[in-house]
Amino acid sequence: QVQLVESGGGLVQAGGSLRLSCAASGSIFSINHMGWYRQAPGKQRELVAVLTSADTTSYADSVKGRFAISRDHAKNTVYLQMNSLKPEDTAVYYCNGVIQSKATIPRNYWGQGTQVTVSS
């Protein structure tokens, strides 16, 4: 009954910026934490950033100082602001959340993914 819908991906030049959005919808009782992952072709999916229910953030070393995760609690939406983008940031970005619906115990939910392509 819970869905994560991502948007904001696209094509951008190196040094540019993008903001990804992930909106949680459905019968939501509570959200434990939200995170962003990414997966490049032929590579393992990796954690990019995580935001806990206490608004504690954590980032992969490769994006520290360039990316920022945030949340609009009223809209049940998490964002990933990406600045100073590099070609190596090119990947499919996935939103993940530990969410409890009104009818179930908490479990993991995944978004469908959004493509981010950074050109040289």
List keywords for this structure.
120 residues; mainly beta; 11 strands; elongated
The structural class is mainly beta
Per DSSP E runs of 2 or more residues, the count of β-strands stands at 11
Unreliable parts: none
Order of helices and strands: EEEEEEEEEEE
- Mean pLDDT rating: 94
Distance between the termini: 41 Å
Shape: elongated
Largest sheet: 7 strands, mixed
Q: Beta fraction of the residues? A: over 45%
Q: Radius of gyration, rounded?
A: 14 Å
The DSSP helix count reads 0
**Fraction in helix:** under 10%
What does this structure look like?
With about 120 residues, this protein is mostly beta strands. It has no helices and eleven strands. Strands 2, 4, 5, 6, 9, 10 and 11 form a seven-stranded mixed β-sheet that branches.
List the helices and strands and how they pair.
Blueprint: E1 2-7, E2 10-13, E3 18-26, E4 28-39, E5 46-52, E6 57-59, E7 67-72, E8 77-82, E9 91-101, E10 107-110, E11 114-119
Parallel strand pairs: 2-11
Antiparallel strand pairs: 1-3, 3-8, 4-5, 4-9, 5-6, 7-8, 9-10, 9-11
Quick description:
This protein is mainly β and 120 residues long. The protein is 0% helix and 62% strand.
